[in-house]
Amino acid sequence: MDIDFLSEYQMLLTEASQFHLGYPYNLKHDNTFLLPFLKYSINNLGGDCFTKSHYRIDSRDFEKEVLQFFANLYQLQDWWGYVTTSGTEGNLYGILLGRENYPDGILYASAASHYSVNKAAKFFRIPYHQIGIQTPSEEMNYSDFYRKLVPNLPAIICLNLGTTFTGAIDDIEQILNALEMKKIRQFYIHVDGALGGMLLPYLRSHWIDFHKPISSLSISGHKFIGCPFPCGIVITKKHLVEALASDIEYLGAQDMTIGGSRNGHTSLCLWYEICKRHSNFALEVADCVAKAEHLYAQLKLRDFNPLLNPYSNTVVFDKPSDSLVKKYQLAARGDYAHAVVMQNHYIEFLDYFVEELAREQLNLAKIGKG
Question: Which residue of the set 53, 59, 220, 312 is catalytic?
Fold first, then answer.
């Protein structure tokens, strides 16, 4: 591959970014401020954002500010956390923390949970009971959860704030009721916030926060906030991480993370976006949801069988042709596809997309008649 290919690659990225609708990424962020920092090897090496290691080319102070934003958003005082490589790492960490605090615990998550939950069960060799879902929303089936709860053993539960395909939210009150009825007093609830973790606090405040008996929370950073790199955060109650702490002498710090090295540019990027936009996050959320409702209404008018869950910006509909799936980079599963309406999507773009679907539908009908 020749170095001249980079200019062609940039053109490919520009085109792909213009026709992107199927994945929950905010492509409107602007991180050109980061360019002067790319000459530095910024690595938040081991430890956490509170403790400096011997390596001083880091962004721990920025990482701490990012995590403090999320701790405030979710009403957590005595917190610990770090900036992760992705939502998957946040889920892995939360579930691992549950296992370390309850070594004989059983992991429970709905069939609509992110694939990283099953990965965590395999990685950490945790007994895993998959819970059924309600249709068509894909919210957890709480009757099935109650049936599958094993008495006298701790429960490690992954709760969804927006499932991957339909954006469904699991109801913490029904989960707590099931635990109470089964008389399970030892439990650990990890919240997979992915995209919805940045939506729900602005749509229904305090429905889920650390005033409830949750233990850890992961949220993706490259989704709603936006970042050039996949990233996320995980926060938890500080006393829970003691089970994972280990002293690393040559670093001059403790390490309680999964990856050890953490991308310092990511913390810088998230900090910048939060500083610049946090006062507008509520408006951005409202705008994304309103545009999703518009898309839902237009698809319904055209009989594309759409679904839009409450407090969600993910619209599910009948799967179009493979060519349109490829063009708009739609996430598809079986007979359905979904669009995730983000800050970079405009009403005109969404209407153009629906018109393309309608034209294709009409052409197929003509071919069928012919």
Answer: 312
